[in-house]
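#struct-queue
[09:14] JT: dropping the first one here, sequence first, then the structure tokens:
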Amino acid sequence: MKRYLGIALRKSSTAILAFAIVFFVNSVQAQDGEQLFQQCRACHSIGQGKLLGPDLLDISKKHDATWVKNFIKSSQSMIKRGDPEAKAIFEEFNKLVMIDYPLPDADIEAIIKYIDSFSTPNVEDNAEASALDSLSAVKDLDYLASIDTDENEASGKALFEGFLNFKNGGSSCISCHHVYADDGVQGGLLAKDLTQSFSRIGGLAGIRGIIDFPPYPAMKDAYAKAAITEEESVQLQVFLMRADKENPMADSSVSGIMKQGIIGMLVLLATIFLVWFKRKRRSVNYHIIQRQRR
């Protein structure tokens, strides 16, 4: 009896140990996945709607693990091979090219596991699903109401145009970007015009994601040792949001400096025409000869 009891205890201990190891490994993986996912936050959310890219909530229910791994490593390769789902996503999100992430399989699995930890149960009750969406919308409105002030807009504009320095010494946004405004300063043309960035990249969540977790190599390097503070991020968000709303039809491709250049060119052409019109049409000698002939 004691012998069987001892065997049972050993088996129970082994089972408990195995369960503990699995639980520990899963916890570590989830923690690693959370850290690795930070580089995805600029373009993707988990359950908070579309940003630059799709919402990744329940991604494992929509695609198998192999497809997700391949898409993360190189979405453009899948598009070029003609994968219909990859092409559909590419078209839906304005043909925005996703950066390749040739990560080890273990890292990608950790990211997927982290995303799956937010997986929703199969909700059959439409009323409950609608209530969840409504709650999310209310939270977004509350956040917007708390930050949408004239003071934040003014500070964000000053930060963007370089009249106010970032606390950690980062370069001003205007070095590379432009935002159309009647009283705004002409910005750089090295990167995309941000006048309509609010509506183009998913509202405040999209703007916040790119500011807090820069996905682009040049921006990432520029702010690696000069991170933008949370307060500065909020101020930039408000400035870009209001710039979009106040200039919904602005043709940002024709910037202020281009308009000034066109006006200057027209003035120059008019001056040349007047000078040319009043020019002497005959040589000086012609008039002397005509007088002598008389």
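[09:21] JT: and here's the second one, same format:
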Amino acid sequence: MWFVKNPEWFDVIVTDNMFGDIITDLGAMIQGGMGIAAGGNINPRGRACSSPSAAALPNIPARA
């Protein structure tokens, strides 16, 4: 709730995967649309990965 009402209060949010997906989608909509906000998967012992919101990808038909 506070994230939606006052997003400027937050610089970094650390959460689990499912709640992180919800927060990323909310952040994208606050900024103007899906695909603008990025999410990050951080592994303190190895590689990290950053990516745009998953809903930003268009539907791609399967190829036979």
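[09:30] RK: nice, looked through the second one.
[09:31] RK: The chain has a mean pLDDT of 74.
[09:31] JT: good to know. The longest helix spans residues 17-31.
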